[in-house]
Amino acid sequence: MQSIEKKIWKRALKIIPGGNGLLSKRPERFLRDNWPIYFSKAKGIQIWDLNNKKFLDMSLMGVGTSTLGYANNFIDEKVKKNISKGTNTTLNCIEEFQLAEKILKYDKFADQVRFARGGGEAMSFAIRLARSKHKKTKIAFSGYHGWHDWYVAANLKNKKNLNNHLLKNLDPLGIPKELKDSALPFRFNNFEDLLKIVNTKKLSAIVIECGRYNYLSKYFVKKINKLCKEKKICLIIDEITTGWRETNGGLYKLLGLKPDIVVYGKSLGNGYAISAIVGKKKYMNNANKTFASSVAWTERVGFTAGISVIDYFTKKNVSKHLIKIGRVIKKGWLASAKKNKIEIEIGEVKTIPTFRFKYGNDNEKLYTMFTSLMLKEKYLATNAIYLSYKHNQNDIKKYLASFEKVLQKISIILKKKSLLNKIKSRKYNY
Hints:
By secondary structure, the protein is an alpha/beta fold. The protein has helices at residues 4-15, 61-64, 73-83, 94-106, 119-134, 149-152, 191-200, 218-231, 252-255, 281-284, 300-316, 318-339, 363-376, 393-415, 417-421; strands at 39-43, 46-49, 54-58, 112-116, 138-141, 183-185, 203-209, 234-238, 261-264, 275-279, 344-346, 355-357, 379-381. The chain has a domain at 73-142 and 186-316: Type I PLP-dependent aspartate aminotransferase-like (Major domain) (Aspartate Aminotransferase, domain 2, 3-Layer(aba) Sandwich), CATH 3.40.640. A hairpin with an 8-residue loop joins strand 11 and strand 12. It is globular and about 60 Å long.
């Protein structure tokens, strides 16, 4: 008998393209059949599905948005209080100014801030600012930076250009052909790749992330700082995922990067919609010259959440906690893998612990098996964890015990190739 969730999902697929609006939350990306689809409530790191079955989130935590935990009382009470006084009126909300001032305290390189709702549109705005300043179209980039035309245009020249940045063989449907050769990808942390682009193309901007699995190297940081200064190229740092996790503000500060524009999202709102474009005056001034506007950008909920998040981060020293918990998890992973003679490697990023199996073509099957077995242990688990302040030592101890149990089973599967061959990998439809 089908669960109520599966019945609803089948109906959703008929009336919503893909079943929902966010690829990262589609159940087939985790498991083919058994992944919970809808939540009824969430608190801390706990999520209940429509059948009131409880799981502990040791995976995406709202795709990196809930760094302070689901339904954080401090944030939610501040938001509720302001909602009762009106959210979007004919006049401006003071919280927009207040949030801008708070952010600039931590981003000393910057002079001004503009806000949006989502990370993708904020990145698109940042690209617009760079192009308007330098009067050049071409952008070099590494990593994932949203769904907008400027970015997906990379696949107009070759459908494989975004394979290592977004999705494999993504078809750039609906993207104007005139944008061909305007977005130029290079491999993460590979300065030689970037230099080839710079030497052959006139760029407005270079867009990078500080890290996902690993960090940018000291060599790359030193070289790109010098390059952007000498060539007068706008350096845009996408901190939508990394911002407000390892330090108050952007990870770029810890790595020594010298940006012209930094973009924040996700953690800044702890589940509420808010993003920020933070930059030098010479770029931000053009925000009033190029048209970018939305009534949704001026409601007070996102600003209130952002102010409260920053207050919480500074008061609780959230980054210190995330780094400490991340260290414990990585140590536990390595110990379990060694004990069960399973080959894995661990990513460098401290507050988003990630591991990778090292079994070539069998990796996807192993990730599927891992997620499936952890689900039986009542965990939403993948090979990456977006840590939150609500992940505590006791949670991690119990999780690592289940991790150990699951790796024992995986070690048996690895020894019996026939069992491994029966596993059906996850789907990646979009």
